[in-house]
Write the structure tokens for this entry.
Amino acid sequence: MTLASVPAAPRKRVRRHMPDYVPWLLISPSVILLLALIAFPLLFALKNSFYFWNLQMGPTPLGFVGFDNYKMALQGGFFLGALWNTILLTVVGTAVEFTLGLMIALLLARQLKGMNVARALLIMPTTIAPIVVGFLFRYMYDPGGGLIPWLLTSVGIPIPAQGLLGSSTTALWAVLFADVWQWTPFFAIVLYAGLLSIPDDILEAARLDRTPPLALLWHIKLPLIKKTALIVVMLRFMQLFNTFDLIVVLTKGGPGSSTRTLGYTLYQAGMVDFNIGLSSAMTWMMVIIVNAIIGLFVFFAFRDWD
Amino acid sequence: MSSFSNFRPTRRGLMKGGTALAGAAALGGLPGRASAQSKTLRVLLAGDPFYYAIEGLKDQFEQESGIKIELEAISLEALQARLTSSFVSNEPDADVISVDQMWLGQYLESKWILPLDPFIKKDKDTDIEDYVPEILYSMNTWRGQVGTLPVASYAQMVFYRKDLMDAKGIKIPEDGSWTWEEYTDIIKQVNGADFDSKKIVGTVVAGQQPAPIVHMYTQLQASKGARWFKDFPAAPKWDFEPTIDSPENLGALKAFVELYKLAPPESIGYNWFDAGMRFAKGDIGMFYWWTAYSYLCKKDGYMSGKDSVVANVMGIVPLPKQPGKDQVVSLGGHSLGIAGNTQKADESWQFIKWATSAKTQKAMGLFNKFGYQFSDFARKSLYADADLLKIYPYLPGQLVALQAGNGKIVRPPAPVYTTLEGIYGLNLNNTLSGAMSPEDCLKQTSSFFTNILKGNFLIPYNQPSFDDTLDATKALIKSLA
């Protein structure tokens, strides 16, 4: 028996029309979940910010107080002082870490001997918990035998009698130095990855044109890693704006209120004083400030984003 | 007879077996797990020296009671934050908890802990009359109820280098018959001296804000007769009007600033332990601090087990007085309470009774894993115990200090104490750094206090008051005995 082979009829793909709402329907669970996770705590805090709710006085809110918590935050003096410290720490910290990180990244990209080891070592500070970094630097700043005061005095730089963390003129910079130590490698690694992504032929062409190194950096490398750099600057800016752990371990906001940041002030109001109303108001003020700054940054930095 | 070689597992067979096993495990496991849970207590403590002794002895409790203990220790600040989150969200965290004396009112009134009166009354062997009444008054009672029992109690005393004072021909009174002025003069005499191949610094302060500086300063403040509020807590009608901006307090603050000038400048950032350990290093002449440093300063680090350079040359004497003022000693420490949301109140009480009993407290004092590192007894009987006196010869003086104690005057447990302490600590720290004058510090602190107290409806005070006196506590003890 033979079987005649019959060519199969070509399958006709039926293109069914998908209603417009289906994609929305499909992504709606994730969107709803995401919104709930972001919106619920914020809305809960917004509601609490208009109530007198101090856990030291009672477990539940004691009454509606309108904008009193916002007024208290602004009139108490702590919030504005902390805002100034935070902005100083954030702007200077981000700038220094970016600059140093870029320099290290450029060095790494030169493929010098020992760079593999350097890369492995570089990642280490970033992997240490900030609280541990705090303890580490507390010992290193100890005026009675710490490494940093010893180094500074050895090279003729005087340190205050109260120590670097004990003087209101140096404490914030000492905190900043610890942060720079920890997070500069993060910039270095990310920017190094950006530099590696620059096509070799562009760099080769520049070299053939005998482009000076600074011009190469300014006109070719930096524009090509701009997107990476902007994103990493934005992330670190937001992280630094919430600086808390280092302050708790190193200075507890002191001496006086010279190192009090918004993050620490918020912690003090919410988790030490248990003034839920006041800390909620502060949270919202922080949300508005950070979003305004980031909004402006995004507007100007990403204008020509394709 | 089947043998292994005949065993041919099929997918269906395996699934059947697996399901049966899982079912059996679930059925058999449930009651087992429930039973294990009911025999396990979660104990959340502050990580102070008493914790290490309890940790070392908990096996005894487990053997005696058959209850397993899951012990955890964290910092006091973290503890407060964690417990508050647990109670506000009604998510049970621990069954037995450390409760600071400043939180007692908040915890009892919010029903976050259970009053212990019924348990004490039921168990006569609690031996409540053995406690130093001043301790129970200062640390454990609120509005006529016992909320916690003390597991470690501290007073404040003066610590000095005996060999230094002997070399300088300075006699330190053993009976407390000296004044703060004399105390400062002695510090001035030894400040800058070369001794034992060290440059001696007169004293040391705990200048870190907020709690350490407030703990140290308020002792001087209370001793010099200054008070926080007009009428609280020993008053038939509470009045929280601040009295902090007073001539007595100004004198005290100026004296404290003078002491800081005779201390290492970096001590402006010292916490409790930093100050104590600085003395243990041997370059400090004399300072006053919590009695826990009687044994902590004998070691060169926290639970290091190694003797410090001052271990055998340390003198401990009562605090100086202010002429014309009654001496008031600060009392502090740690107490245990039963979490309001626990399902194991009886087991929790068993643990508290065990940990605070004279027998266990003595065993904690004799616990020698890190050197002897516990002498913070709240029970009178232990201050006459021959075994303990051999190890801690300063105990009689410590008992006198405890009996002169009034924690409710030195750091009054007002409902918003933590907030007030935050402001006070900040301004005191600013005063030490020179950013603020003592006059401005007290004026500004008083003004902040008024605003905070008014904002929290404590001025005027319209809720029921409670005349909280030591006599009332003594009567309560008697009623529970």
Residues 39-154+331-406+471-480 of chain B form a domain with the D-Maltodextrin-Binding Protein; domain 2 fold (CATH 3.40.190.10).
